[in-house]
Amino acid sequence: MSKNFDVVVIGAGPGGYVAAIRAAQLGLSVACIDDWKNEKGGPAPGGTCTNVGCIPSKALLQSSEYFDHAGHAFADHGIEMKSLSLNLKAMLARKNTVVKQNNDGILYLFKKNKVTFFHGRGAFAKPEGEGHTVRITGATEETVIARHVIIATGSVPRALPDTPFDEKLVLSNTGALAMSEVPKRLGIIGAGVIGLEMGSVWRRLGAEVKILEALPALLGAADTQVATEAGKLFAKQGLDIELGVKIGAITVGKQDVTIHYSDSKGTTQKAQFDRLIVSIGRVPNTNGLNTQEVGLKLDDRGFIAVDDHCKTNLPNVWAVGDVVRGPMLAHKSEEEGVAVAERIAGQHGHVNFNTIPWVIYTSPEIAWVGKTEQQLKEAKVEYKTGTFPFLANGRARALGDTTGFVKFIADARSDEILGVHIIGPTASELISEAVVAMEFRASSEDIARICHAHPSLSEAVKEAALAVDKRALNF
């Protein structure tokens, strides 16, 4: 006999598990289905983000940054190390522990909020009476009936044509996070977030890293001033980034990978690597949902087609996160999951795409929210800017990290903040103030008039706001 629920969520990534918890908080009976497995075959909810994405990459970024600091920066602080060695096995074990803690935390939250969890794969089946029928395949076969279904199945890495991932020599983000030894020569195709972060990790640990990017400019989505600064700093660190390349033949040998490509001048080049990470984007994960059986509409790029409220073409079927339009960001997925749960409960959930922050966790970190200068120029919007370098910030000097700057962009007439762009220490944390300010449609003057603790990195945000009116106090 099938079990009945008000809401069934397919997928327990950031969008799915948060949607399930919020729906349960609102008094609905909720089930969540997810088939991620840990090393022992047990449940590992959290999706790509927790298992092979955001969480493990940040763990390795932190560990590798400590290693890099110990080898290069500690001496400036009067900390002398006579010998330094890398225990990669222990580093990876710590990363795995962090992942498991997050997996277990989600399972605890399901129990706390009385969300029924099914460890298996969910797919639509032919309707059995009212509601939507979802078949679960896994350790046991079960069928559930849902009044509402939320699809949150996420995305999968895009592979190169004719060069599939083997996770041994040709790696997706999964293999990039689990190399058992540091490769001498590491190649990366794609200079996006994953490529830059994974390149940073393995460069710090001793690999020679070359990144090949098809686009003619680095970080095209970021503000040009920030992207230019980032390119200089990455080059100084030793990341070899080639832009405007065209990938040709790729030969996977027994122990290495050879790439033939044309550089930005059209000259044929050849490079040989011990490992190759392919990070050329991700595609929506709709395989196995049985979409054709029930007539669920996909768009021309394979995403589940939804309206502005995340409704699909099927009644009471919703979709959130990477599987629908919009930026593939974990926090965007979470906000959509909450909004949909609230809409199902009769409330008015809301997601403001204009104030979704972007972060790249390299060193320095890069973060932004709102519009870039190039976007405003294209839209012919009049604006004014203010920047402030971390070189002039007392806390940054004390930390020993004065790279980068904070940049404000405000409307030329109203002074409303249109965008904030940060490259520098803890940019991922500092950007939150800008997000809050923009949600309240604050002006740069509002931030300039707020007292910030001294000494703190946040003072650079205040100073950049002051600089919009050309009255920065410390630069």
From TrEMBL:
<feature type="binding site">
    <location>
        <begin position="190"/>
        <end position="197"/>
    </location>
    <ligand>
        <name>NAD(+)</name>
    </ligand>
</feature>
<dbReference type="InterPro" id="IPR001100">
    <property type="entry name" value="Pyr_nuc-diS_OxRdtase"/>
</dbReference>
<dbReference type="GO" id="GO:0005737">
    <property type="term" value="C:cytoplasm"/>
</dbReference>
<comment type="similarity">
    <text>Belongs to the class-I pyridine nucleotide-disulfide oxidoreductase family.</text>
</comment>
<feature type="binding site">
    <location>
        <begin position="153"/>
        <end position="155"/>
    </location>
    <ligand>
        <name>FAD</name>
    </ligand>
</feature>
<protein>
    <recommendedName>
        <fullName>Dihydrolipoyl dehydrogenase</fullName>
        <ecNumber>1.8.1.4</ecNumber>
    </recommendedName>
</protein>
<dbReference type="Pfam" id="PF02852">
    <property type="entry name" value="Pyr_redox_dim"/>
</dbReference>
<feature type="binding site">
    <location>
        <position position="213"/>
    </location>
    <ligand>
        <name>NAD(+)</name>
    </ligand>
</feature>
<feature type="binding site">
    <location>
        <position position="322"/>
    </location>
    <ligand>
        <name>FAD</name>
    </ligand>
</feature>
<feature type="domain" description="FAD/NAD(P)-binding">
    <location>
        <begin position="5"/>
        <end position="337"/>
    </location>
</feature>
<dbReference type="InterPro" id="IPR050151">
    <property type="entry name" value="Class-I_Pyr_Nuc-Dis_Oxidored"/>
</dbReference>
<feature type="binding site">
    <location>
        <position position="58"/>
    </location>
    <ligand>
        <name>FAD</name>
    </ligand>
</feature>
<feature type="active site" description="Proton acceptor">
    <location>
        <position position="454"/>
    </location>
</feature>
<dbReference type="InterPro" id="IPR016156">
    <property type="entry name" value="FAD/NAD-linked_Rdtase_dimer_sf"/>
</dbReference>
<keyword id="KW-0520">NAD</keyword>
<feature type="disulfide bond" description="Redox-active">
    <location>
        <begin position="49"/>
        <end position="54"/>
    </location>
</feature>
<feature type="binding site">
    <location>
        <position position="281"/>
    </location>
    <ligand>
        <name>NAD(+)</name>
    </ligand>
</feature>
<feature type="binding site">
    <location>
        <begin position="328"/>
        <end position="331"/>
    </location>
    <ligand>
        <name>FAD</name>
    </ligand>
</feature>
<dbReference type="InterPro" id="IPR023753">
    <property type="entry name" value="FAD/NAD-binding_dom"/>
</dbReference>
<feature type="binding site">
    <location>
        <position position="122"/>
    </location>
    <ligand>
        <name>FAD</name>
    </ligand>
</feature>
<dbReference type="GO" id="GO:0006103">
    <property type="term" value="P:2-oxoglutarate metabolic process"/>
</dbReference>
<dbReference type="GO" id="GO:0050660">
    <property type="term" value="F:flavin adenine dinucleotide binding"/>
</dbReference>
<dbReference type="Pfam" id="PF07992">
    <property type="entry name" value="Pyr_redox_2"/>
</dbReference>
<keyword id="KW-0547">Nucleotide-binding</keyword>
<dbReference type="InterPro" id="IPR006258">
    <property type="entry name" value="Lipoamide_DH"/>
</dbReference>
<keyword id="KW-0274">FAD</keyword>
<dbReference type="InterPro" id="IPR004099">
    <property type="entry name" value="Pyr_nucl-diS_OxRdtase_dimer"/>
</dbReference>
<keyword id="KW-0285">Flavoprotein</keyword>
<keyword id="KW-0560">Oxidoreductase</keyword>
<dbReference type="GO" id="GO:0004148">
    <property type="term" value="F:dihydrolipoyl dehydrogenase (NADH) activity"/>
</dbReference>
<feature type="domain" description="Pyridine nucleotide-disulphide oxidoreductase dimerisation">
    <location>
        <begin position="356"/>
        <end position="465"/>
    </location>
</feature>
<keyword id="KW-0676">Redox-active center</keyword>
<dbReference type="InterPro" id="IPR036188">
    <property type="entry name" value="FAD/NAD-bd_sf"/>
</dbReference>
<keyword id="KW-0963">Cytoplasm</keyword>
